[in-house]
Amino acid sequence: MDTPRRQRLEEASGSRPGDPNGQGPAATMEALDTPHAVSAPGQALPAAPLSSAAIPTLPLDFVRPADLVADAVTASEVKAALPVKDLLIRGFLSGAFLGIATSLAYTVRAQPLAPIAAAVIFPVGFVLLALLGLELATGNFAILPMGVIAKRVSMGGLLRNWSWVYVGNLAGCLFYALFFYWALTSFGHTNGGTVATQFKTAAVAKTVAYQKLGATGWGLAVVKAVLANWMVTVAALMAFVARSTIGKMAAMWLPIMIFFALGFEHSIVNMVVIPVGMMLKAPVSMGQWWWWNQIPVTIGNIIGGAALTGLALYATFGEPAKAR
């Protein structure tokens, strides 16, 4: 046997080279080379560790809440400093990806399946945009205020990010809405079938139904939007809770599924649903879309994201809280 391997066996057995008692490596090399070998009689076994602290552990795929908040504050700085070009491009792609996920969910909803099926599949769009590092206004409604309260982002930087990303999201949603309409109706030669019916029904429910309730309907849209973006922004922050891709996906999936299943109002999703419904001849005007849905839902999304997620988590896990 070669000398290096002999030395390794001697070190593993704890015996000295050439041990005269016959129980060292020289006496047991053949046994060690044999499958299912057992320790030779009288050979010392390794001592068990005296405490669990001596047992090495693998790092867990989990980020503590305080570190999550710190990562989100750092991300807010990066987002606030992005050039307008990047805010628009990343916002455009986010809007398009959410549009794709929305059309997929409505297609599933039109099938003879349990209603929860559409909610289970919808988060795929959010996962795509989050893993690609794109910009979604509703997620930024929570992340940017954390940077402001930490004095790392100015109010001007916050408003700049929100405004340009919102415009990018709108452009991406409208772009996808038009292409989806063309695909669904074969450039207007068919009525779009049951999927089209789903979009038209949703467009009316998100606008005309609130209008019929008057001021109460406007307030109801705000309330549903607060609840929607509470969950959506929790998902946006859950993207920081794991280091692995699969961990991030699982953490983000659940809150998005909850908001969609409960039928709450999300301003960016509505930038696809209502325009598609309008293209399909739903009885909804531009004014009804913006006054009875887009404006109150955006306000509610800001409240839910900033107050109930961003500022709330920073208040308990941010730097001032850790210093107490």
Structural class, by secondary structure, is mainly alpha
Radius of gyration, CA atoms, in whole angstroms: 29 Å
Under CATH, the homologous superfamily reads Glycerol uptake facilitator protein
Secondary structure tally, helices: 15
Order of helices and strands: HHHHHHHHHHHHHHH
CATH topology category name: Glycerol uptake facilitator protein
Proportion of residues in helical segments: over 70%
Overall residue-averaged pLDDT value: 87
Q: What is the strand tally?
A: 0
Give the CATH level 1 class. Mainly Alpha
Beta strand % = under 5%
Amino- and carboxy-terminal Cα gap: 64 Å
Description:
This protein has 324 residues and is an all-alpha fold. It has a single domain (65-319), classed as Up-down Bundle (Glycerol uptake facilitator protein). It is 71% helix and 0% strand. The protein has helices at residues 3-13, 25-32, 65-81, 84-109, 116-121, 124-131, 137-149, 155-185, 193-205, 208-212, 215-238, 245-261, 267-279, 286-317, 319-323. Helix 7 runs parallel beside helix 14, helix 8 packs parallel to helix 13 and helix 11 (215-238) packs antiparallel against helix 12. The longest helix is centred in the C-terminal third of the chain and has 32 residues, at 286-317. The radius of gyration is 29 Å and the shape is globular. The N and C termini lie far apart (64 Å).
What distinguishing features does this structure have?
324 residues, mainly alpha, Glycerol uptake facilitator protein, 15 helices, 71% helix, globular
Layout of secondary structure:
Elements: H1 3-13, H2 25-32, H3 65-81, H4 84-109, H5 116-121, H6 124-131, H7 137-149, H8 155-185, H9 193-205, H10 208-212, H11 215-238, H12 245-261, H13 267-279, H14 286-317, H15 319-323
Helix pairs in contact: 3-7, 4-6, 4-8, 4-13, 6-12, 7-8, 7-11, 7-14, 8-13, 9-13, 11-12, 11-14, 13-14
